[in-house]
Amino acid sequence: MAQENLSLVLHSKGDLRLENRPVPEPGPNEVLLQMHSVGICGSDVRFWQHGRLGDFVVKKPMVLGHEASGRVVKVGAAVKHLKVGDRVAIEPGVPREMDEFLKNGRYNLSPTNFFCSKPPDDGNLCRYYTHSADFCYKLPDNVTFEEGALIEPLSVGIHACRRAGVTLGSSVLICGAGPIGLVCLLVAKAMGASQVVITDLSSERLAMAKELGADFQLTVTRGDGPQQLAQSVADMLGAQPHIAIECTGVESSMQTAIYAVRSGGVVALVGLGAEMVTVPLVNAAIREVDIRGVFCYCNTWPTAIAMVASGKVNVKPLVTHRFPLEQAVQAFENKRQGVGVKIMLKCDQNDQKP
Ligand SMILES: [Zn+2]
């Protein structure tokens, strides 16, 4: 094993560097992974560009990356379910305490979780990385490393659709056709949604959404009124949708989601934007529209892997660009400029395959 561990380190706002770090040793309940494929997330770019995301501020150098898969190269003494050579998908959030949230099965809400590439916790855009073995999930032979890395964004879609209550026959509005809007689309269709309409400013993104199974695409123009857009959604579907899943974090889009949804329906808020937003809350209240928050995911990895392995969900078209880890800064620049859908970084020098 090479003893160098090339890592993509964010030192502070705007200061992204590739540098060598020591290869870590796994603790008793950990595995050492040789990283294979890591997707670039919008949050990684936000930390690079702004040095913060919400309350999370970069104060010391941090390795980026959290949408990842790799190969087990060493196992801790207490690890029973994994062995050297296993290919795994990594769940980046790991509880540190047996608190009420963990007991209730909602461990994503625990305030003390470790989380890859959330300051100050290191991510896995590197050659070698250690992680809690309980949060590494073995991939079946027919699931590629890139599909393994895409289990993370797919998990966001599963958790969002669960929170929104998507079920057989649901009609769903998805606001935003970026990577998260697209995984919500894939999951909503797999969960039995009968009709999905998706919105975006970009006709290119909407073309991808159509390819992935969206029944209707609505092109939004800056300045369109939320009530007028809500009417367009109802006109397309023939009725108001039961559910709206908001993936942009943009105030006007949140307003559209509320106006669009049917009385008694649900609005799930996935997109992160400004801390304070103005929305038609009274309109929602008098129509008994439930507004639900969505934060990451919990208990989704086994489901997501099963859906990909069975072919019920196809995430492969989401990967539009690939760069070797050595070109990570260039890859981030592409992501910043909004190129493609999902950019994969290939961390294994000897295996750059999907
Ligand atoms: Zn992410």
TrEMBL record:
> The organism sits in which domain of life?
Eukaryota
Known SMART domains for this protein? PKS_ER (SM00829)
Q: Which Pfam families match?
A: ADH_N (PF08240), ADH_zinc_N (PF00107)
Q: Which GO terms describe its biological process?
A: sorbitol catabolic process
Intracellular or extracellular location(s) = Cell projection, Cilium, Flagellum
Query: Which keywords, in A-to-Z order, does the entry hold?
Result: Cell projection, Cilium, Flagellum, Metal-binding, NAD, Oxidoreductase, Zinc
Q: Which family does it belong to?
A: Belongs to the zinc-containing alcohol dehydrogenase family.
Q: What is this protein called?
A: Sorbitol dehydrogenase
